[in-house]
Amino acid sequence: MPHSVEKEFTFTFSSKEGKSKLTVPVTIPLVSSCTELVGRLQKMHNLPCNVIDELEKKLGEFTARETGRMHDQNGEENLQLLRQGKVNSNTLVDRWTKAYCKEVKEYATIQEEDPMRTFANVYHTLIHSPALETLLNLEHTYALAMENIIRQRDKDLKHLEGKHQSEMEVALQHVGESYRDDDINSLAQRHFDNMQLGEGKWAGELSQLREEQKREYHDWVHRVFEDTQAANTPSYVQRLRTVSATLPAAEDEERQVQNRLEESFTIHLGAQMKTTHNLRLLCTHVLDLCRHKPHTVGGIVVPQPQRLQTAMSLYSNSLCGLILLVDNRLNSYTGIKRDFAGVCEQSTDFHFPDVGRQLLAVEQAFAAANAVRQARQLQNVQEGDSVSVHSNGSGSSGGSDNQDRSLGAKLHTGDFYLTKHSNLSEVHAVFHLVVDESVRTGDITSRHPAILSIRNIIRLCFRYDIQTLTIPLLLTHEMTEEMTIPWCLKRAELLFKCVKGFMIEMATYSSQVSRTIQFLVPRGLSEEMFAQISNMVPGIFRLSNTLVVKTS
Q1: How many domains does the chain fold into?
Q2: Backbone phi, psi, residue 391, to 5°
Q3: What does the alpha-carbon distance between residue 334 and residue 452 come to, in Å, rounded to a whole number?
Q4: In a domain, 10, yes or no
Q5: Model's pTM, two decimal places?
Q6: Range of the domain at 129
């Protein structure tokens, strides 16, 4: 069935010589307009002007008639093929459905734009505009308001706890006189209920304030973006000035930020295809990389420059990640997880769900992931494979740990889950890496589950544009008694060599992008030990040599 045919068009008209006849071939369907074709025929055959209108009318009727006839013929041939079974009816239906949905408005599918995706594009545009400073100041103002509410909550709960403690001490002193055991139990239950009620009250206020700030922030960002797009400069400038004028004054007692030890290196990896990367050795607490560190400029409280860099790279290909060592319980109630959750709640996250909701999503996904893992372990047992991915590198795991693994009730050593943040100081993504007491021993190897998981984390960083990653060099966040000088040097050497091998391995599968690895050591480390660890870097990594040009 042809898509076009050529037909002869005949036109008879009167001229001074008598009757004249024009016969020309015309391609059906007509590619150009009838007016254009008539103009070309007039010039080519020197036609008189008085026949142009009639020629255009006859040509239009001819092309319409022949085009309809060609379509009818093609349609009849297609129907004949369909009746004979030479055309797949399902494929034909899909093609027609797709054509109608894409071309006909009545049948088109209404696609609603994702509000968060729209907000991300708007925010990325504004954060790279003159509104940058105002955006950060607005976020900082909201953070100070949230911090004030949290301070009031802590004060109220502390007062309530002290009151309960005093009542309990008085009751225990008069046990057997005016208080019986049942009275003590009732008093403890009443104290527990009062504490739960107080915590619930403050949690509701914080949640309400957080949602209100998030809604106001999104509305403000969209209004400023609309003002900039409409070139409404006075309104745009007025919004910026209004926010800048509401910045809080400096506090009477300035917040002192603890200094941290740092040393940076530029290294080369690879023999033939060399890649250049940056190493940084840090001595500070891990949460100092997450906690906001405000300071004053001209009597006004403003965020530090690190926050500026983090905000500008939020929707970019240069993200920052952090490995946080946690236990095998998926909650935020104890230890460093509680401290990290406290840092996250100091300010509202305007781009991602809060930590509690993200952990809830991880918990829901954990059941499916655990089912896959149990099926894989069962398959390995059936195949006689006795090697477990989660076997302890030091061989010191106990029976209770093995029982937990068989039940699949908890996370395993080496498991990790990810949370995303936009309200932290120097971090966008946090990898919560599960470790146990075995990392405190001095005989772990490169096959330890925690070290193997660091390899997987580095692979994810290479894959998803996390250009900066902070790794706990000693696989611990606190200094303990067993961490002697030989212990620290041995652990640092192990992590240095393993990370070097992982980066060389991953560089072969990705682009030659310069990345930054930050090795973090606990705050209590002495300056002498920090210097010894720093001196190990040139012996393990190939440093970039400084080019010295001498002129005579």
Answers
A1: 3
A2: -70, 140
A3: 25
A4: yes
A5: 0.71
A6: 118-245
